[in-house]
Amino acid sequence: MEITKSNNGGSNPSAGEEFKDMIKGVTKFLMMVIFLGTIMLWIMMPTLTYRTKWLPHMRIKFGTSTYFGATGTTLFMYMFPMMVVACLGCVYLHFKNRKSSDHIDRETKGGVWSKLRKPMLVKGPLGIVSVTEITFLAMFVALLLWCFITYLRNSFATITPKSAAAHDESLWQAKLESAALRLGLIGNICLAFLFLPVARGSSLLPAMGLTSESSIKYHIWLGHMVMALFTVHGLCYIIYWASMHEISQMIMWDTKGVSNLAGEIALVAGLMMWATTYPKIRRRFFEVFFYTHYLYIIFMLFFVLHVGITFSFIALPGFYIFLVDRFLRFLQSRENVRLLSARILPSDTMELTFSKNSKLVYSSTSIMFVNIPSISKLQWHPFTITSSSKLEPEKLSVVIKKEGKWSTKLHHRLSSSDQIDRLAVSVEGPYGPASTDFLRHEALVMVCGGSGITPFISVIRYYILPDRPQQQPDLFIDFNDHPNLLSASPCVFMATSRAAMLGTRRIRHKNRSCNATNLHFGERPNLKKLLLDVEGSSVGVLVCGPKKMRPRQKVAEYVPMVWLRIFIFESYQFQLVIAYTYSVFSCVVEFA
Fold this sequence. Notes:
alpha+beta; globular; RBOH/FRE; Ferredoxin-NADP reductase (FNR) nucleotide-binding domain; transmembrane helix; six-stranded mixed sheet
């Protein structure tokens, strides 16, 4: 993959920019080394070398220290590296060069990285996942299998009929108890990473090129792994106690060793959270899903009481980063924001416009969490920001569709004009990509369904900025004929009409020819033909809509077929929206 950079005047980067690039490179290298060292520690942990050589050496070196002690050894080995990586991530983001709109990096030839970002799996329980995601998932599963097999091999080697008889056990009972313990140890590895994807304000996600909304699926995957391993861990111990006629062990609370009752309480709390993640329950009874997830406090508290404070440090680095992030977000959300206007649009759609500091700059497709205490003090709902920080530096807007209880109550309050001025609103965010990288493509293809238009409104508005030189958008709008299309999707109408109007004005002003808007009624667009007909060596494909939206899956299937050019696929999906108006909107933006 070759990346060419267009500079105004061909000037070389200044010494300050070179210094920032050097700091970024060194910081990223240190982050990678520390992270790989932590992974190596996880790999070596089930081996005899770790137990007989590494761990005793670390305990001798740090166990007698005044500052570390026995607990500090585990803290230094597992918690400290992740804290350092998080701090280095802050440094990296601070020195990250945010290129201006007249310095555009464009991908002109395909490479390994562009191929790894293409969709590999389209249908299935994992949804749409790229080659990179499948690779890392396979590596993580391989790590779990390696640890489990190594644990069992080393443990079973010490279990003999004689050793089992010494504890009044049969051979299978001794092996069952050993396997149950090792399942819990494997679950700790998943738990160590469980909270990292939901630490929205941490430096780790943007430093790795991830966004908070795109990382939700990693939290879901890890959550299923954690609960599956811990559930089997608990069931194996219950079977073991029942076979040993020691079922009373279930209510034992050992203050020095492992507390069985605390582990069972943590498991029950986890099972309640796990049950509400079932798609039908989450969509129909979102409030049950939302409030049940606060049981993570009970889950983590009794997990620490179950295994002890020393051993819990192995699985707590991600949770600690999540707590710091949650505290900072709590401080941000304490203050109410100024609501400039609240409009009720057609088809039960609402637009809220807030006042913001002109220095607050966010990128396209960013989201913001909104809380209205008069409706619910605990519920925070994410909405895509439809405004542009460059077009409206002192305003920020979101569009909300009346579909659930919370939005229905909000619609009722906004309908009462006497309550709008007294409506207190708190916000959290915005969250989004660290920089807008859409400009690196020569063309963009945006496909969405229903409410999925909202992330693309800010993208379209960004491309029609009057200060963006030498880039004129061609907008091709294709949607199916629907009697209530314009009323059901007012955002589509407003965004496309405004883009067409402003784009046409700019084109006429500069005497340049461009097809501003083409409308096609009667059928859905031929997505495969549309992708093949897009000109350009680098094409970005953005898709937003429900998980089961057919065009969303079709685009993901077609992108890997077009291998002669760079097709970067990015999928956005609303995890918390209950229903959608199913109108298909596709947009191609080409740059002259």
